[in-house]
Design brief:
This protein has twelve helices and nine strands. It is of the alpha/beta class. It has a single domain, classed as 2-enoyl-CoA Hydratase, Chain A, domain 1 (Alpha-Beta Complex), CATH 3.90.226.10. The strands form two sheets. It has a six-stranded mixed β-sheet with strand order 1-2-3-4-6-9, sandwiched between helices. Helix 1 links the parallel strand 2 and strand 3. Helix 2 runs antiparallel to helix 4 and helix 4 runs antiparallel to helix 11. The structure holds zinc ion.
Length: 274
């Protein structure tokens, strides 16, 4: 079974996260398939708008930190290489697959819409934030609890840009969820709709945008993204990626383990405390 589903009709490509049994936790194959789907939609002239949605109750639980994570080659080699090269391989891998993919998807030359239901946790944000519009079901909720790993947030620092500096700090300091309504009030989410209407609402919105001139859409997107970059958005996100990487290094120094490997354990311990 494919980790990502792809469908295109009436000018709208719909890309669906399809690992509902793990709440769409992101493992390396899922990220690669997702990137291939975005590339396919981007290269197909018949596609005017791209929708990213998710099967199951939750949009995404973040990176796959289950015990199985070491089975995947990129991460396996990363762990095996630590004694010799420190976290060099991890830095390279995260640069390409986390920071790099987010940047690439953010700058696709077609409008993108994230359709979010249920929990959108940690790296789940790294799928929603790079999209141009976010439509949330009324049960959607957003959090980045990565400070639990002694790291200052996920690899892609959208927090300050999306929420404003005070809410960004609150989100990171507490690890608490922000509701769909609050995310809407803060400007992180475009629209909140009843869960039962989410798919139809997003489809209608996508079809409406698909009728606009594709060059107009491309230029409009570029106008906004360039403005954000002139304000320093991407330079800041790159700088914070290095702060994130310092978090990995610090956690490794403190515990002698790559933090991804023991996050599952820490999260379970944290849950047990509640
Ligand atoms: Zn990381």
């Amino acid at each position: 079974m494919s980790l990502i589903l792809y469908e295109a009709s009436e000018g709208v490509a719909t890309i669906t996260l399809n690992r509902p049994e793990t709440n769409n936790a992101q493992n390396p194959p899922l990220l690669d398939e997702l990137d291939a789907a975005f590339t396919r939609a981007s290269r197909d002239d018949a596609v005017r708008v791209i929708v990213l949605n998710a099967n199951g109750k939750h949009f995404s639980a973040g990176h796959d930190i289950s015990d199985g994570v070491r089975a995947y080659d990129p991460w396996k080699s990363m762990f095996d290489d630590v004694e010799e090269n420190g976290l060099m391989r991890m830095y390279r891998w995260e640069s390409e697959h986390f920071l790099g993919y987010c940047r690439k998807w953010r700058d696709l030359q077609k409008p993108t819409i994230a359709s979010v239901q249920g929990a959108c946790v940690a790296a789940g944000l790294m799928l929603a934030w790079p999209m141009d519009l976010i439509v949330a079901a009324d049960n959607a909720r957003f959090s980045d609890p990565v400070a639990l790993m002694a790291i200052g947030g996920v690899e892609y620092h959208g927090h300050t840009w999306e929420l404003g500096h005070r809410k960004a700090k609150e989100m990171l300091f507490t690890g608490e969820f922000i509701s769909a309504e609050e995310a809407h009030r803060l400007g992180m989410v475009n629209r909140v709709v009843p869960l039962a209407e989410l798919n139809d609402h997003v489809r209608t919105l996508a079809l409406k945008i698909a009728k606009m001139h594709p060059h107009g859409l491309m230029m409009a997107k570029r106008a906004v993204n360039q403005t954000m970059d002139i304000m320093g958005q991407y330079a800041a996100i790159q700088a914070v990626f290095d702060i994130h990487s310092l978090g990995h290094a610090n956690a490794y120094a403190a515990r002698g383990q790559v933090t991804l490997a023991n996050l599952a354990e820490m999260t379970a311990a944290n849950k047990a405390q509640k």
